[in-house]
């Protein structure tokens, strides 16, 4: 039986070999002298006592241990590890105690100790190593032996033990020891590793033992900078020492959560590939990330060309139509109607199974009354008897195949509904398509026609609206792109949409006499119709909520289609020369301009920390209001761009903003330079939210100055932060490290990137002007007074609305103070049934229920609508102890007619009168706050006066007309040059 390996023992022979030069210098040969030297000097020189414990690395990895040594509690890092660190700390950079125990030793500490095993390292050195178990993510013996097949190791000890005893052999440590670190890539990208060679065993040692772990990437597939920016939770954990760097989090947690490790490594999408899934499930690769690295992110293709793949997908679609046919024949489809909501015109020539699939999809998609006018254009298959299978159809039969255009025009005479839908028979409707298309007319009365997002059977876009070019040619926007790209998912007024799905006002359609017969039998007829609608001043709208799976060319051969297109294009040019004169020249850099039929009043790029959903609070609600006003009231084209990239499509990405806003959910600050350069000269205004983003974005805007010609930059400060920071210092009873002026200078040191500035109130505006900013506007909050708000008797309970993003949040501070200091003062004075309800987004890492232990507290969290809560609560509280700007929640509560008790700093910010417009209590005085709540809650006359006054304040100070006019003024071209680089 092999001798037990003891990580706690001093290995004399190894020590003599490892530190031979130092021992020779002191002329130390005798064993006892060597031992004494280690105890008296070697340990202080960060010498390791054996090959299994790295003293220098241990002290670097756990800096708190150095403090304990300095305080005299431990002699060395090894002493600390032996006595207390062995369970939670790692002894060597190639071993991970937590990883090994979780992976191979699923036993409690007591169970291990019963077996005579002190920790995972004890087990690994004596068993795991010889069983070829990985010691960490960075050393996999099986992988290592494939890289170094001639490595000779003691089978009783295993590769890990043998490797650590190897004095160290730098040729071995330069090899790849696991999937997770690429030494060749590392040396190529960080050549200083070679220069500093004597300090390191090899590239991996440098990566795991250098003093700046966040400055180095381990391989081509992970970016520390990107990961920290994309995942603030991880960056915070690294900052507080929970992980050495972001990669440590990723290899331990993030890769299994399918977090994105680098800009161009879309791990979640990669993991959806069936081939990848099966290989990872079969444990051929330990994770999706390892599979990605092993294949360079490329899944082996079948060898088919894109054309062949689409041909196969079309055949599969036809096969599925045949599979569905028996079910549809037994389904008793019915389109019987009395007063139809819409009329559908479908021209059909053969292909019975596909036609039945289209009709089945139509019936399932919309349950209201539909008139279906089916034009049987000379069919020779079972379409001739389609009335036997589908009830309520209005069937028109023609002599021979008259084609799409003639068939549609003949059917138009029989249309009975207010809206007419041209619908191909080679498609399927995705859920709610008809409902969404009809809703567009109600939402935007200037709409003449609505078209769909057409997706081909291969899963790629056919079009997201279509463009007409000056030379009369046409193109489908984003053809061959994925349907979920942001550019395809916002509403636009376009030149035209395909007649495969085109919903038109019937009166308008009849006034225009339908399609121009000169384009018979097909192609360019819908282009010409839409252009004529546009010329009448009505919109042809592309609506991404209307999604259609389109077989494409299902009723005509490709060659025939192309011939008809070429012939009719010339007719289109001759008939629409005046329209074509105003369209862009067909060039790659004009695609963005051509995707919309009309130029926007302004094209604005709004950059915020995160996508500004209303439920996030903390100024994001205000940003959302600004975007909404720009789009809905001023006709701007707005692109919403987050500094911190969202990970995947958030469920309310498209419902959280105006549907005509372009929301870049798939980008972040690291993509911004490339994004701006891909859109040269496109934006009129960059609206930069929050002062701290000026410093982040200034270098990027400077780099992209050529693409920003003619573009002005607006810095919306949202709130001046310096005063809030001073309030926080005062609350802690600590002396500020800087003066207010110094903090202001630091806060606005990058403000020179902008020429226009926005403050949330006059006080902040005065500060900006004092700092030398000239063009400063004040833009507060948009609110409308709810004059029909419920009265005193219809309400009860106390309400707080606000988001809690982190532990440093002003809202969290105020809630904890209120629960601990104020609520106890209300006990015995308010009925026990009166609740304190907390609504708003809460970071999942923060447990408010534990932090707010008072029995009155009811934490609701994020709600879809705050209005029911405002309408049912009697008093709104805002106990904020430090804040900047103007709290949105005060204006929102006042607009809903909920009388407010607020801290005095908030009262000062809004400039309202305490005792009249709200009840103010001196900031931080619990007794005064409790007294104000009691007075307002119990005194009906006082309550009604405050409600009336606050509603009057909102009506006077938050008028939508003035708010919109201010935004319009800010967006106007600034004086002097358009863009200024700091």
Automatic annotation (TrEMBL):
Transmembrane segments: none annotated. The keyword Kinase does not apply. Residues 343-457 form the Glycosyltransferase 2-like domain. One of its GO terms (molecular function) is transferase activity. It comes from the Bacteria. Keywords: Transferase. This is Glycosyl transferase. It comes from Acetobacter cibinongensis.
């Amino acid at each position: 039986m092999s001798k037990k390996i003891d990580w706690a023992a001093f290995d004399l022979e190894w020590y003599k070999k490892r530190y031979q030069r130092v021992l020779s210098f002191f002329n130390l040969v005798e064993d006892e002298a060597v031992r004494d030297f280690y105890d008296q000097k070697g340990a202080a020189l960060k010498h390791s006592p054996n090959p299994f414990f790295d003293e220098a690395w241990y002290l670097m990895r756990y800096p708190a241990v150095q403090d304990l040594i300095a305080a005299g509690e431990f002699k060395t890092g090894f002493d600390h590890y032996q006595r207390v660190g062995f369970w939670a700390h790692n002894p060597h950079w190639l071993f991970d105690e937590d990883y090994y125990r979780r992976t191979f030793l699923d036993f409690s500490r007591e169970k291990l100790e019963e077996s005579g095993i002190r920790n995972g390292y004890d087990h690994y050195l004596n068993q795991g190593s010889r069983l070829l178990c990985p010691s960490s993510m960075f050393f996999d013996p099986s992988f290592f032996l494939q890289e170094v097949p001639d490595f000779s190791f003691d089978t009783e000890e295993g590769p890990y033990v043998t490797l650590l005893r190897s004095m160290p052999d730098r040729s071995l440590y330069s090899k790849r020891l696991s999937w997770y670190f690429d030494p060749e890539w590392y040396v190529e990208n960080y050549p200083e590793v070679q220069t500093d060679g004597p300090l390191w065993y090899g590239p991996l040692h440098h990566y795991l033992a250098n003093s700046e772990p966040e400055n180095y990437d381990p391989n081509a597939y992970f970016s520390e900078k990107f990961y920290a920016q994309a995942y603030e939770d991880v960056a915070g954990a690294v900052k507080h020492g929970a992980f050495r760097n972001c990669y440590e989090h990723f290899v331990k947690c993030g890769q299994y959560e399918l977090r994105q490790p680098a800009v161009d490594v879309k791990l979640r999408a990669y993991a959806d590939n069936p081939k990848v899934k099966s290989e990872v499930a079969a444990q051929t690769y330990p994770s999706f990330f390892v599979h990605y690295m092993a294949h360079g992110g490329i899944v082996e293709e079948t060898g088919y060309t894109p054309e062949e793949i689409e041909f196969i997908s079309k055949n599969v679609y036809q096969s599925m139509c045949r599979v569905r046919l028996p079910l549809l024949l037994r389904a008793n489809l019915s389109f019987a109607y009395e007063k139809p909501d819409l009329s559908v015109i479908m021209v059909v020539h053969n292909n019975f199974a596909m036609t039945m699939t289209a009709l089945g999809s139509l019936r399932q998609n919309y349950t209201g009354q539909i008139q279906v006018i089916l034009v049987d254009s000379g069919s020779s298959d079972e379409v001739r008897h389609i009335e036997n299978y589908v009830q309520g159809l209005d069937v028109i039969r023609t002599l021979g195949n008259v084609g799409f255009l003639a068939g549609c025009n003949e059917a138009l005479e029989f249309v009975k509904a207010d809206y007419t839908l041209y619908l191909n028979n080679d498609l399927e409707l995705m859920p709610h398509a008809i409902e969404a298309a009809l809703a567009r007319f109600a939402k935007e009365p200037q709409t003449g026609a609505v078209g769909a997002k057409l997706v081909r059977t291969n899963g790629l876009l056919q079009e997201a609206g279509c463009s007409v070019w000056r030379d009369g040619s046409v193109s489908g926007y984003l053809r061959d792109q994925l349907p979920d790209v942001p550019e395809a998912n916002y509403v636009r007024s376009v030149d035209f949409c395909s007649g495969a799905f085109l919903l038109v006002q019937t009166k308008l359609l009849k006034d225009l006499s339908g399609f121009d017969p000169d384009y018979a039998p097909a192609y360019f007829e819908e282009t010409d119709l839409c252009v004529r609608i546009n010329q009448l001043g009505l919109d042809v709208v592309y609506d991404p909520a209307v999604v259609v799976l389109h077989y494409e060319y299902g009723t005509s051969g490709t060659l025939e289609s192309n011939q008809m297109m070429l012939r009719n294009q010339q007719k289109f040019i001759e008939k629409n020369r005046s329209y074509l004169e105003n369209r862009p020249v067909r060039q790659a850099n004009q695609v963005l301009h051509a995707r919309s039929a009309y130029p926007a009043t302004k094209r604005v790029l709004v950059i915020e920390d995160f996508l500004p959903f209303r439920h996030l609070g903390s100024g994001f609600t205000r940003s959302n209001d600004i975007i909404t006003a720009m789009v809905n009231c001023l006709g701007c084209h707005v692109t919403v761009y987050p500094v911190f990239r969202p990970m995947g499509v958030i469920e309310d990405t498209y419902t959280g903003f105006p549907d005509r806003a372009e929301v870049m959910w798939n980008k972040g600050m690291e993509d911004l330079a490339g994004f701006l350069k891909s859109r040269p000269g496109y934006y009129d205004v960059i609206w930069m939210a929050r002062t701290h983003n000026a410093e982040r974005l200034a270098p990027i805007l400077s780099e992209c100055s050529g693409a920003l010609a003619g573009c002005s930059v607006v810095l919306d400060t949202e709130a001046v932060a310096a005063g809030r920071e001073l309030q926080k210092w005062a609350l802690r009873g600590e002396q500020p490290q800087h003066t207010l002026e110094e903090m202001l200078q630091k806060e606005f040191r990058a403000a020179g990137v902008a020429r226009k500035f926005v403050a949330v109130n006059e006080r902040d505006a005065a500060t900006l002007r004092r700092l030398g900013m000239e063009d400063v506007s004040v833009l507060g909050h948009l609110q409308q007074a709810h004059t029909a708000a419920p009265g005193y008797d219809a309400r009860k309970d106390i309400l707080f609305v606000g988001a809690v993003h982190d532990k440093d949040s002003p809202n969290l501070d105020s809630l904890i103070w209120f629960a601990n200091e104020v609520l106890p003062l209300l006990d015995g004075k308010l009925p026990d049934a009166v609740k304190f309800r907390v609504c708003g987004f809460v970071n999942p890492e923060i447990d408010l229920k534990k932090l707010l232990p008072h029995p009155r507290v009811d934490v609701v969290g994020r709600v879809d609508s705050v209005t029911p809560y405002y309408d049912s609560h009697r008093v709104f509280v805002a106990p904020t102890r430090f804040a900047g700007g103007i709290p949105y929640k005060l204006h929102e509560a006042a607009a809903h007619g909920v009388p407010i008790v607020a801290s005095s700093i908030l009262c000062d910010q809004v400039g309202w009168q305490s005792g009249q417009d709200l009840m103010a209590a001196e900031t931080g005085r619990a007794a005064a706050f409790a007294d104000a709540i009691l007075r307002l809650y119990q005194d009906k006359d006082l309550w009604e006066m405050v409600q009336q006054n606050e509603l009057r304040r909102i009506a006077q100070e938050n008028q939508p007309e003035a708010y919109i006019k201010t935004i319009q003024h800010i967006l106007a071209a600034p004086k002097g040059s358009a863009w200024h680089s700091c």
